[in-house]
Amino acid sequence: MEPRKISDGVFWVGAADWDRRLFDGLIPLPNGTSYNAYLVEGGTRTALIDGVDPTKTGVLLARLSRVKRIDYIISQHSEQDHSGAIPAVMERHPEAKLLASPKGKELLSVHIGIPAERIGALADNETLDLGGKTLEFMHTPWVHWPETASTYLREDRMLFTCDLFGSHLAAEGLYEKDDHLVCVAARRYYAEVMMPFRANIRRHLERFAKLKIDVIAPSHGPVHTNPDRVVQYHGEWTSEKLSNDAVIAYSTMHGSTAIMAEYLAEALARNGVEARLFNLAVTDLGEFAMSLVDAATIVFGTPTILAGAHPHVISAAFLANALRPKLRFSSVIGSYGWGGKAVEQINSMLSGLKLDALNPVQVKGAPGPEDFKSLDTLADCIAAKHSGAPL
Ligand code: FEO
Predict the structure, then answer these.
(1) Packing angle between helix 256-270 and helix 369-388, nearest 10 degrees?
(2) Distance (Å, rounded) from C-alpha 30 to C-alpha 237?
(3) What's the gap in Å between 88 CA and the centre of ligand 1?
(4) Which of 85, 123, 119 is nearest to 105 (CA)?
């Protein structure tokens, strides 16, 4: 396992994880992932930027096997998929000085057990001179944790961004030329991981716009040699712009709520609103998260079970609330047997999004003609709200 050259003195030394199918015990990874670490060799000093997941420590050490000396290990993010292998690198290279943001110093000692006195703190904009290669350390908090940082290699006009601009995509090549694949993988990653931090990302994009950037090197997925493409995507995703879309996420027990969800999707389509339908019993949560990137409305469809909403719907509502998408409107539809509090429960779970909650459609038993009329009214209402909102 050899280092892979990106430019003179800059190498990828990371690991692909083809088989990983779940991140955080929650996020599906249909294409695996990679943990990207980078080696920057100057005329006088050498720096390693980030490590890899602890399960891939052997791969990182193998790629570094011919490296005689590492002066600096720069940790841009303390989460274990990037920091987990750092203790093993430090054991092999006791000369290396571990550096992070001040918050990173605190979190590294907690998460990978390195004593704080062995970690140096880098200020925002502080530089490291490697001899003909200058690394500028930039505090870029909340992409994804409070300590996250980026590093700009001035001479090569290369920006290392850790999780930001990343994608869960294992690949043989360092680069991915397929626009569609890059867009889908980056959008999925943004939706699952970065969406709660839209305002922070917008601020960081403004700062990055002042740099001359030829290459963006994130710590998951492909290296971007067309940086404008992925920057533009993130600009769109983090903007306030909404699409004329409604997401319908539902669960069903005896089929009544499914009938209602499908009827509503058709009624919305007749009104010119594109509906994305997710049966939560079988859906990929990443696809659900992606649909929320710029949708204007979410409708949860839930049967009533044990006097409340279905657990799948509760889980999806919790996730939607936590991901903080741009959504403006919501509603709840569904069938119940004898009573319950499903609507109130779902609305309270979405309280963080401050949505305009439209009239729910609740049906006792199977939906009949009057219930379909109520769904038509809801579809009309959603279409009117969308046309009244600056989409
Ligand atoms: Fe890829 Fe937040 O770790």
Answers:
(1) 40
(2) 22
(3) 19
(4) 119
Ligand 1 proximity of 168 Cβ (cutoff 6 Å): no
Estimate the crossing angle of helix 342-349 against helix 311-323, to 10 degrees. 20
For the chain, domains (ranges, CATH) are: 4-238 (3.60.15.10), 243-382 (3.40.50.360)
Q: How far is the CA of 206 from the centre of ligand 1 (A)?
A: 22
Residue type, 375: L
State the closest ligand 1 atom to the C-alpha of 220, by its place in the atom list counted from 1.
1
Rounded CA separation 80/229 (Å): 28
What's the rounded Cα separation, in Å, for the pair 242 and 91?
50
- List the pLDDT tens digit at each of the 391 positions of the chain: 899 999 999 999 999 999 999 998 888 999 999 999 999 999 999 999 999 999 999 999 999 999 999 999 999 999 999 999 999 999 999 999 999 999 999 999 999 999 888 899 999 999 999 999 999 999 999 999 999 999 999 999 999 999 999 999 997 678 887 888 889 999 999 999 999 999 999 999 999 999 999 999 999 999 999 999 999 999 999 999 999 999 999 999 999 999 999 999 999 999 999 999 999 999 999 999 999 999 999 999 999 999 899 999 999 999 999 999 999 999 999 999 988 899 999 999 999 999 999 999 999 999 999 999 999 999 999 999 999 865 5
Cα 264 → chain centroid: 29
> Is 163 close to ligand 1, i.e. is its CB under 6 Å away?
yes
What span, in angstroms and rounded, lies between the C-alpha atoms of 276 and 310?
20
Separation between Cα atoms, residue 185 and residue 183, nearest integer Å: 6
Q: Residue with structure tokens 């993988």?
A: 185
82 close to ligand 1 (CB < 6 Angstrom): yes
Q: Which atom of ligand 1 is nearest to the CA of 166?
A: 1
69 Cα: distance to centroid of ligand 1 (angstroms): 27
Q: Tell me the longest C-alpha to C-alpha distance in the chain.
A: 79
- Is the Cβ atom of 20 under 6 angstroms away from ligand 1? no
CA atoms within 13 A on the CB side of 104: 34
Q: Which residue's C-alpha comes closest to atom 3 of ligand 1?
A: 79
- Indicate if the alpha-carbon torsion angle 172, 176, 180, 186 is positive or negative: positive
